Amino acid sequence: MIIVRNLSKVLTDGQTILSKVSFQIDKGEFIAVIGASGSGKSTLLGCLALRQKWTEGQLIVDGTEFSGAKWADRLKLRKEWAFLEERPALALKKTALKNVFSGRFWQLPWWRKITGTVSTEEHIRAMDYLERVGLLDKAKMLPAEKLSGGEQQRVAIAKGLAQGAKVILADEPTKGLDPESASKVLQDLRALCTEQNMIVVCAMQNLEMAERNASRIWGLSGGKLVLDIPARKLTQREKDLVL
Ligand SMILES: Nc1ncnc2c1ncn2[C@@H]1O[C@H](COP(=O)(O)OP(=O)(O)OP(=O)(O)O)[C@@H](O)[C@H]1O
């Protein structure tokens, strides 16, 4: 369970980007973060992923407080939480399979890191992750740069799984994708929540996709969390509140 209390982010010039955002997330939830451009979605995800500094606030994960936590503890959390960006961070000249292997790098024994060898078990595991995102057939054939945007995003999800991620934070992972590819990416993320009890928090532009795929919707406006409801069709009043 993740608890955030009063997360605020204020820039050095005094501009408030996030203002006292509080929430609790349980395992298995798929949260869509919606809001107008500039409402603070990316900043919220960046702060949650500990990639951006918090000005104020408390982060508690499974009973452990991480605010101001030791560097090693924060590093551990960053390893367990995968961050998916709009443009997935893949080695484009390498195959999907090699990209997924790289997600396991830090878990490998030192001699495997040095020799770059991969055990049969690691190989099977990586193929299993690619199967979960429906990309088994593209595992070894092509460099990642030849995959479509949606496929690259799904390789990034498989890499996150290989990394041992229990939480996926995704900043508009479907931006620029055609509706079918976007749908596949979101269905994969949803399946990880329902089948493996993972947590996904995903900033989204497309409200319909959020309504259809998420289990919960957060609405941000001016850096404040103004909507927090189980996913369903939003009423006009709710839409006016956030969009
Ligand atoms: N480092 C920064 N310096 C100055 N302004 C910033 C900085 N980071 C964020 N902002 C501002 O904070 C606000 C929120 O930005 P953020 O990127 O989080 O919004 P967003 O909801 O993700 O927007 P979009 O949907 O357009 O990506 C914006 O007005 C942005 O210009």
TrEMBL record:
GO terms for molecular function: ATP binding; ATP hydrolysis activity. The keyword Translocase applies. SMART domains: AAA. InterPro entries: AAA+_ATPase, ABC_transporter-like_ATP-bd, ABC_transporter-like_CS, MetN_ABC_transporter-like, P-loop_NTPase. Keywords: ATP-binding, Cell membrane, Membrane, Nucleotide-binding, Translocase, Transport. The keyword Membrane applies. Residues 2-242 form the ABC transporter domain. It comes from the Bacteria. This is Phosphonate ABC transporter ATP-binding protein. It comes from Paenibacillus flagellatus.
